[in-house]
Structure formats: C-alpha cells, structure tokens
Amino acid sequence: xxxxxxxxxxxxxxxxxxxxxxxxxxxxxxxxxxxxxxxxxxxxxxxxxxxxxxxxxxxxxxxxxxxxxxxxxxxxxxxxxxxxxxxxxxxxxxxxxxxxxxxxxxxxxxxxxxxxxxxxxxxxxxxxxxxxxxxxxxxxxxxxxxxxxxxxxxxxxxxxxxxxxxxxxxxxxxxxxxxxxxxxxxxxxxxxxxxxxxxxxxxxxxxxxxxxxxxxxxxxxxxxxxxxxxxxxxxxxxxxxxxxxxxxxxxxxxxxxxxxxxxxxxxxxxxxxxxxxxxxxxxxxxxxxxxxxxxxxxxxxxxxxxxxxxxxxxxxxxxxxxxxxxxxxxxxx
Length: 333
Known about the structure:
By secondary structure, the protein is of the alpha+beta class. Helix content is 50%, strand content 8%. The protein has 14 helices and six strands.
C-alpha cells in the first residue's frame, strides 16, 4: 500500500511540475451546489435535482457579459421601474434572467458540432497565437467548442467518453466498476444512481439523426446530470487515495473531504491540475492538453499529458483538450 501511494505521489508531482506555469487554475467561478449540502436533508434526490436545474441544468447560467438595455425588453423594463422608484418583483427578475438564459443557450450550445480548426485562425489575429494555431493544425483538423460555465473540463471529457462508449461492448461492466468506486468511498446509491443512469443512457441513444450534441442540447438537465457523474468519479478517486492527493490541494482548514465538496463535487467550479489527474485515473484514460494560453513560451505550442501508471488499464489512448485561459474545448485529428 505504501509503495502504491509513493508511486502515485511521484506521478502527481511529475505531472504537476511538468505543466505548472503552462496551465493555470481556471479563473472564473460560477454558482456552486455541493453534494454535502443534501446528504442529511429529507427528499435528497428531489432537492439535488432542483438545485442542478436551478444552477446548471434545464437552463444555462446567466451570462456574465453586459447586455444592452436597448436590445433586451426585460432589462429596459427593470431600469424603467427603478427610475420610477419601484424595484422589480421576484417574478420580473426571474423573467429577465430566463430571457438572458435563452439568449445564451441559442448562441452557445453545450457542445458544438465538429468545426474545422480554421475557426481558430479566424478567431485570433495576433502573430503569437497564429503561430501556435499553425503548430496545432499539424496534428489536429477539427474541434468542438464547449460552453463556458465552469463545467467545461468535465463536459469535454464526458462528451469524448460517450462518443467512444457508444461502440464499446463492455458498458455494463464499466458502469458496475465505476459505480462501485463511488460506493466504496461512502457515496450513497440514492446520491449517485440517477447521475450514473443519465450518463450511461447516452451510450444507447446516439443514433442518427440524434447526434450526441443534439441530445445534450435537447435535454440540458440530463447532460448536466452526466457531468455530475464525472465530478463524483473525480472525488471518489481523490478520497480513495487521500494520502497521495492531500499534499497537492490548498485546504485552509486542513479538511480534505470538505475541500473535495467545495472544489470537485460543487457544480460550476473549474478544474485544476489535481482534479484532471484524478479523473484521468478514475476513468482509465490519459488526458492530453494543448495550451494556446500565454505560457512560458510566447510562440511555441505547449502540449502536456496526464498519463497513467504502466500497470493501469486504459479505456482508450487519450482524450485531447484545447486549453485557453479559463476554458477547455475538444480537439480531433
């Protein structure tokens, strides 16, 4: 056991040192809801589902971008009411927020269709980024954009996994193994079963013309449940190897479980290197990160890999993510 922990410690240290300064902590923090908050409440799953629906499911989070009052009737209404000395009612605020959510959902799908990598050349005009995109284009031809909402890392990994699993004959075996990991660290079945079912149901639903991206956008609530499954698997890996991961988390009160609840299990909280390593090990898939951000080298594309131990079984060779400050998208050859 001590040897295994030491080996994992070495892997963690090597992986993090290799990318420190290249991939930073994602900056934006969204609304959070933690599994811990519902463990001791009555009607656990109803409460949890309502939280997910309100925070990240059913309708996307409110955009942080400013919205013109002239282009949004609800916002104009709110401003007018304040001028008259009356604050908008809760119903009016909710209506306004829903309008913003609908607008964001229309313009920013959860996961886009396959896009030619040329879109990155069109997006970046600076010479440094142009050089990096040119280097990226030598190995990759396509990408998928993922919505920026604090869940992009988990969403990208879940989506890529499901693309592979639709043709995997061992889904039932994998489901049993992954669910067992959750149960082993103390998650109650009532907590994870619905998340698990939502994730694995997608493996049998991907039939033309219902592509996976259309399935996700048609039922955002279910796709968010699938993303939560990825978060719980990440937390389970970290809890089951607490001695190895504790040194790599910044917990002010020294409570590792509480740190996981706030930084892994909480919806809308971005992933850092430690969470990436943990999810990679939990699902048996190495992760490759191509960095377009401003790292140590201004013009050279930085590529890092979160690999597994030589003794670990691998579900597939790798999932490749495109990193830009605070955000992850998917890359395809």
